[in-house]
Amino acid sequence: MWMSKFARFAPPALQRSTSAMACQALRARRTPGPLPSGRAAVQLRRQHTLGSASLPLARLSVRHVRALDDKRLMEVEWEDGGQSLYPFTWLRDNCQCPQCTLQSAKARKLLMSDLDIYTGVNVVEVTNDNKVSVVWTDQHNSVFDPDWLKKRCFSPAARQAMQEELFLNGRYYWDSTLRIPTADFQEVLSDDKAALAWLVALRRVGIVYLRGAPAERGQVARLAERIGYLRLTFYGHTWQVQDKYMANNVAYTSGRLSHHTDYPALHFAPGVQFLHCINQAVEGGESEVVDGFHMAEQLQREDPEAFRVLTTLQVDFTDTGTDYCDFMLQSKKCIIDLDPKGRLARINYNNATRDSVLDVALHEVQPFYRALKAYVDVMNRPENVVTYKMEPGDLVTFDNWRLLHGRRSYVSGPERLRHLEGAYLDWDEVMSRLRILRHSVQEDM
Ligand SMILES: [Zn+2]
Fold first, then answer.
1. How far, in Å, from the CA of 123 to the mean position of ligand 1?
2. If you measure from the C-alpha of residue 99 to the centroid of ligand 1, how many angstroms do you get, rounded to a whole number?
3. Is 278 exposed, middle or buried (0-12, 13-18, 19+ CB in 10 A)?
4. Start and end of every Gamma-butyrobetaine hydroxylase-like N-terminal domain (predicted)?
5. CATH code that applies to domain 182-436
6. Considering the entire predicted model, what is its pTM?
7. Tens of pLDDT along 268-316?
8. Distance of alpha carbon 166 from its chain centroid, rounded?
9. From ligand 1's centre to the CA of 114, what distance in Å?
10. Where in the chain is the domain with CATH 3.30.2020.30?
11. Residues 6+ away with beta carbon under 8 Å from 381
12. Strand 287-291's sheet: what is its strand order?
């Protein structure tokens, strides 16, 4: 039920699968292709309005409950015929009573040293108000809400659905045919539904364009405050992308910037980037983006050996200079980070800050260059690159762990200085706001 509620905020391409069975939700993750509409974020809001007419959720009902003592599992049979199994140890660990849980913080009070991980049960039963009651062998009594239990069912489909609700890891892959989801800057600041649609599209698609911001400094900071706070780095709370004398970063020149992620010289690179156009060059300065996850998937298919090298070999990155204060950064990163389940987690690549120090064996040097070149070649294919030119008042928000962005060279002149203001945020803060907005928007329905 809660899956279908949240699915209203998924881009249209994902919607069919997420509103279907939970186990099908992840199939959408691997579905590349163009967005059916270029104004996904705006459309999503409309869908939400239409969806608000739906019926309130029926509460889950427990038909029967029993203890399987030999397996130390509790079996719950639901009114719809489904069954769920819960280990005794997990149930005892997650007792929701005031003695075991600090209600005001929703945090566990029960200490691990006080948890009997071999506990048995005396009685399990369904209470008059349809809750599940467990009396443990030490007489402690735990009472569980059926909705709470159902969400925490250990079946693979339920676990996958819960993870999808928490993290929105289903991604929508794209190529040059993408029409970037677009929303209104003021609306995102003032309207919770618009803000939610923006953040969901930012997560799913990886890039959202906001129009209508004032063409003056301070707007990226306002947008960051909508979420929580921005991420301070050595380039300051926010930073000014301009052609600068004695530039301390290649971005602060008028030259071409090849596709890169920002700040791989930090072990924990910023997750999200905002760029606000205050002034654009008359000639050149177009922006380019590619979907690094989609490109990595293509590389894995076309050149598995290159993919293996880029996901296993650590490269050194460096960044030295003075800005907010002086800095001398070193980091070690794989160009393509996978999570422990082998899923794409983060791209770390900036050719400007890739160190001349290369801590790999002699015989690995040439294979590394071959692999990196293969990945860059995939990213440079015209069919994979989205190009756009920002105008004053435009603000682009994108996933810096996934997208690679670049810039075409521009003609720098004193009569009209190209000027962008940028800021970073992290995904933890963005996802936190997304969950809160989802909660408040649903309550309004
Ligand atoms: Zn308790």
1. 15
2. 5
3. buried
4. 68-149
5. 3.60.130.10
6. 0.86
7. 999 999 999 999 998 999 999 999 999 999 999 999 999 999 999 999 9
8. 10
9. 11
10. 62-154
11. none
12. 257-260, 403-407, 287-291, 386-388
